[in-house]
Amino acid sequence: MFSMKPHTSQLQVGFAATTILLIILMAVPSNVVDAFMMRRACNPVAGKKQALKFLQSSEYLAELAGLDFVPTEIEEHELNADGEILSDINEEDLDSEGLALLEQEEAEYGGQGELSLDAFQEEWLEFMDQVDAEAGFTVGGVEKKTIMDNIMYWVGTRYRYGGMSKRGIDCSAFTQSVYKLSANVQMPRTARAQYTVGQPVEDVKELQFGDLIYFNTRRRPYVSHCGVYLGENLFAHASSRYGVTVSSLESAYYSKRFIAGRRLMPEDLLDMTIGMENE
After folding, report:
1. Helices H, strands E: what count in the chain?
2. Is-catalytic flag, 7?
3. Per-domain residue ranges of the chain
4. Does domain 31-272 have CATH number 3.90.1720.10?
5. Is the pLDDT reported for residue 185 higher than 50?
6. DSSP secondary-structure letter at 93?
7. Which residue of 4, 13, 17, 46 shows the fewest CB atoms closer than 10 Å?
8. Could you confirm whether 77 is annotated as catalytic?
9. What is the pLDDT of residue 167?
10. Which of 7, 77, 171, 226 is flagged as catalytic?
11. pLDDT of 136-170, one tens digit each?
């Protein structure tokens, strides 16, 4: 007679496979397991959809991103469904392979000719005194359209702890890449290290387009997540839940975990300019 019950041998094989998997997981460092599980749980398709919806709901940001403006009221449940997948991953433990890849990918800097560092700084700061931040540039002198273009380049990319490519990227590599592509600067690799750069902006109401913003998303209190502020309480970031997306500071999750922002001033960008550090 045909039976729907699995044979004893099948159950034994299944149990054995589960046991082997558990043994393997127990032998692997916990931060590696956490990173793997977050990667499997990440939904970059939903993240891209959310990013486009948020950007298109703002007339200014839609124009900056080259999207159609679609007036949309974001529902409260949509805001509160957002957030990170909690874990105790410490991004200070980024493996040497990931950091080596970063070093290999650094762009070669050129075109400065015989201009000395002091002369360059003087000329740059003089130029910045004349820049109007409302005329399409950040206070640091980076074109807003360029920043947005580089954010859009990454939108929809899967989250990967330690990742720095289109195959997967983490939050601090994302902010680092956006400013590297937009301003030819090399920011520190981790969120905690990036938090030491720039002018502090503690009040959410004082944030401006292009400011870096930081959160505590772990069980222990420290800077563990970062993004780029866009305006109207929206920010771009590499989310462990949705990949590179746009989220709102009005969400219950992010509003409770916001620490502060950092504004990159002209002198900060000069200090990090690729190719000028050792001159």
Report:
1. 12, 8
2. no
3. 31-272
4. yes
5. yes
6. G
7. 4
8. no
9. 95
10. 171
11. 999 999 999 999 999 999 999 999 999 999 999 99
Q: Determine which one of 7, 42, 77, 225 is catalytic.
A: 225
Sign of CA dihedral 112, 115, 118, 120: negative
Annotated active-site residue 171? The verdict is yes
Average pLDDT of span 5-32? 50
Q: How many CB atoms lie within 10 A of CB 258?
A: 18
- In degrees, rounded to 5, the angle at the alpha carbon of residue 144 between the alpha carbons of residues 155 and 91 is 50
For 208-239, the pLDDT digits (tens) are 999 999 999 887 778 999 999 999 999 999 99
What one-letter code names the amino acid at 178?
V
Q: Regarding predicted confidence, which is higher, 116 or 210?
A: 210
Helical (H) or strand (E) element with 229: strand 225-231
